[in-house]
Design a protein that fits this description.
It is a single chain. The protein is of the alpha/beta class. The chain folds into 2 domains: 166 residues, Rossmann fold (3-Layer(aba) Sandwich); 153 residues, Rossmann fold (3-Layer(aba) Sandwich), CATH 3.40.50.720. Helices cover 45% and strands 19% of the residues. It has 15 helices and 12 strands.
């Protein structure tokens, strides 16, 4: 399914259960407004690049919904970024901020090379070059140009960007600096995910995985699962998957399977994710880790375990493999790993799925904490940030769980019910 349609389908499944504050069905105009972004800015940037030539880049910033507050969402640098992807991602952020109850709406931005009218050789070069082989000098030049273009529509009370695919704290520092020059004063709250010395928040790097850990622990408590080994399988060993594996391992869970894009490993006696991380840094993959057996990603998803963490790509759990999933709980650090058909199958089979817009919302939640600290000139300790994160995520989990039990639907449907109710109330009150 087209990713944009996937978000709309989430709301459509929830529509029969979404009521206005006075108990009436969601008005048609609310759902109609959720189908398109409020504002979409796009354009082109032409800059000299490292080979001495000039290149054209297309840039985007989508502000999907701001009923509950300023738009919030990352900026990604990727050769395949396009208008539809940015719109879909901003819609996902609207759902995510609503389900957690943050005073934000959904936004997203991105940059990609323009390939029209280029030779095949030039197209191949740009796809390979951007952004992985781009020098820091060119990356800074592109980032500052992009900031100048989107400056009229961003700001601490308008739209607050953050890192995403192939952007990082350094890119956020350049955006903050360029925006500060434009407005005439230092403005750290214009972005989140910044370096700590420029107003970034402690705990931000681990926030997505830590949020997944907190909601999974809440699910274990709700379900009363008391397995002897609490086995965990992690599909995808990037930032979120790796940190999540270490958090569960350090809490006494047994990590029996880990995979990345090149393949997977498993050991029913357990793997040490800290050592697996070192092995991946050294060799480039988790495969061939000592004292483990090879397994492909499809087989890994179907291992018998207490907790399955899909932390890689979209649509990895489908109607085809959902009947063979043997996990008791699925918690999703990745965006969109489970299709709608698969969610129905998992629910019917009694597998408790914590959907992505709840399970991976730790990142945007700590981004909110960073924004608050910047706006109020505060400086919270990492312990304070983690305690606040746990409170926010567990409270959101309990609200979604209440909708799930009351309406006898999966947590996937319930998350959109809860988000939809909040958006409906905000939209109607604003008129």
């Amino acid at each position: 399914m087209d990713p944009r349609k996937l978000i709309l389908a989430g709301f459509e499944r929830a529509l029969p259960y979404i009521k206005t504050p006075d108990g009436k069905p969601m008005p048609d105009w609310i759902f109609m407004k959720l189908q398109e972004p409020e504002r979409l800015l796009e354009g082109r940037i032409v800059i000299p690049i490292d080979d001495g030539t000039n290149a054209t880049f297309l840039y985007y910033r989508s502000q999907h919904n701001t009923w509950c507050g300023p738009a919030k969402g990352g900026i990604r640098y990727h050769p395949d970024v396009n208008q539809e992807e940015v719109i879909f991602l901003s819609m996902g952020m609207t759902a995510k901020t609503a389900v957690i109850g943050l005073p934000f709406g959904g936004g997203k931005g991105g940059i990609a090379p323009r390939y029209n009218n280029l030779t095949p050789e030039r197209t191949t070069f740009l796809r390979d070059y951007f952004p992985k082989k781009m020098s820091a000098l060119v990356s800074e030049r592109l980032t500052r140009e992009y900031t100048e273009k989107i400056a009229p529509i961003i700001g601490p009370e308008k739209d607050i960007p953050a890192p995403d695919v192939y952007t990082n704290a350094q890119v956020m520092a350049w955006i903050m600096d360029e925006y500060s020059k434009i407005v005439g004063y230092t403005c750290p709250a214009v972005v989140t995910g910044k370096p700590i010395v420029l107003g970034g928040s402690l705990g931000r790097h681990e926030a997505t995985a830590r949020g997944t850990f907190f909601v999974t622990m809440a699910a274990l408590n709700h379900l009363g699962i008391d397995d002897e080994d609490h086995s965990v399988v992690v599909q995808g060993y990037g930032n979120a998957g790796c940190i999540a594996a270490k958090l569960f391992y350090d809490a006494g869970f047994k990590i029996i399977g880990i995979s990345d894009s090149k393949g997977g490993i498993y050991n029913l006696k357990g793997l040490n994710p800290h050592k697996v991380e070192l092995h991946k840094i050294k060799s480039g993959s988790v495969i061939n880790y000592p004292d483990s057996d090879l397994i492909d990603n499809e087989e890994l998803l179907e291992l018998r375990c207490s907790i399955l963490l899909p932390a890689a790509l979209e649509n990895v759990i489908t109607k085809d493999n959902a009947p063979r999933i043997k996990a008791k709980i699925i918690a999703e650090p990745a965006n969109g790993p489970t299709t709608i058909e698969a969610d129905d199958i998992l629910y019917e089979r009694g597998i408790f799925r914590i959907p992505d817009i709840l399970a991976n919302a730790g990142g945007v939640t700590v981004s909110y904490f960073e924004w608050v600290q910047n706006m109020e000139r505060l400086d919270w300790t990492e312990d304070e940030v983690n305690a606040r994160l746990k409170n926010k995520l567990v409270n959101a989990f309990n609200r979604v769980l209440t909708e799930s039990v009351a309406n006898k639907v999966s947590m996937g449907v319930a998350a959109y019910i809860h988000a939809g109710k909040r958006l409906t109330a905000a939209g109607m009150l604003r008129g």
